[in-house]
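User: Can you predict the 3D structure for this chain?
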Amino acid sequence: MLYDVDNPDGPDHDFFRGFADHLGANRIVDLGCGTGLLTVTLARAGRTVTGIDPAPAMLERAATRPGGEAVHWVLGTGDVLTPHTTDLIIMSGNVVMHIIGDDWHTTLAAIARALTPNGRLVFEARNPAAHAWKSWNDPVGERDTPVGLLRESVTTEPPDEDGVVRMHCHNEFVETGDVLDVEQSLQFRDRSQIEADLLAAGLVTLNVWSDWARTPFGGTEAEPLMVFDAALPG
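Assistant: Here is the predicted structure, written as structure tokens:
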């Protein structure tokens, strides 16, 4: 699947796997799991892993990939989380940035309810000070993919007053003539806003790192990534 080609396993997945092992988490939820590339690698004997995603096509791919039988796949969003049942909740990739407006606050509240007393929430977000969206305007280009030659382009609007960036992605599969136009929205939030949103949901920020090696985040434009580690207070 093209999604897996564009979102491969890498240092981010290594980080989440290592975090789960270090925490000794036995009940893990990958919220916004997509095609389950990371999710299936979290499964092991004595550990319950659940992958949640709102896209049926993503879950169909996830369930049929090697190792998919070891994961419990659930269609939905944060609203399907069960209270007080989860040691670790992961949101990887751009998942948190796809959760826009009030849905973000609702999701954080559901996560806080779902965590066990010593549970943790770990996720990544892009640092708005790095202005990543400026590099997302791509003219028409072509590349070979597992599904044939792909002609694609991306047009990006600057963030609105709420930090929402809208991307217009054009994909033309040359050999079949199929065309797929996708509109995506990503909401950029700075560190202080995310920490305030976590606190409002009943969660405290334990760490904010700037990379997968756990370098403390300093808030500069040269740090495109923010990795948050949060928990219930106490």
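The mean pLDDT is 94. DSSP finds seven helices and eleven strands in the chain.
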